[in-house]
């Protein structure tokens, strides 16, 4: 996936007040279970051993591009109590240039240049779920509901930011379908209400995060999510 940074998704800053999470970029996402319970399995001899719920979490992560066709998946892993993954948004038009040249995109990037690197913690409100294609549910014309031109206004009310084709909606739908199926096995299953995301700024960062994900099981006892 490193080719995504060959002059295509090079971001000058990690954050973000003026950042629209419907824009093309590579995002590193971490989603934790409620109270960091080990619903997904455990690490045995540095290898992740998935439970049935862990297999559900993995299955539906892999299905994200089926329901959001503009998404490409980078490296990911299901750990005992969380999921790490790279989501690459690759829309034909993410709304930044509106058919004009790329200078407007450069202006947007310049506006956020110099903003300090930071981890963004995003809430996952349940309203507006019906506006998006639901993971695990077929639709007659999914591209209609995932219009790549649909974007959010960073200054709009919070409810307007949760529209189709944003990172928050993708993760919200993933969490929703995993919860529905996991509770058939364990009635108490739940996620933390928020998730962590980080905009990957360049290829060096992309490779570093990719390696972190791959090595996560090897360093589990030193991981901040280990308990």
How would you portray this structure in words?
The chain is α+β, with helices and mostly antiparallel strands and 227 residues long. The protein has a single domain (2-219), classed as Alpha-Beta Plaits (2-Layer Sandwich), CATH 3.30.70. 27% of the residues lie in helices and 18% in strands. Strands 4-5-1-7-6 form a five-stranded antiparallel beta sheet, sandwiched between helices. Strands 2-3 form a two-stranded antiparallel sheet. The two termini are 32 Å apart. Residues 9-15, 99-133 and 137-162 have low confidence and may be disordered.
Question: How are the SSEs placed, and which strands pair?
Answer:
Elements: E1 26-32, E2 41-44, E3 47-50, H1 52-62, H2 64-67, E4 71-78, E5 82-89, H3 103-112, E6 120-123, H4 142-145, H5 158-161, H6 167-182, E7 194-199, H7 203-215
Antiparallel strand pairs: 1-5, 1-7, 2-3, 4-5, 6-7
Helix pairs in contact: 1-6
Descriptive keywords:
227 residues, alpha+beta, Alpha-Beta Plaits, five-stranded antiparallel sheet, 7 strands, 27% helix
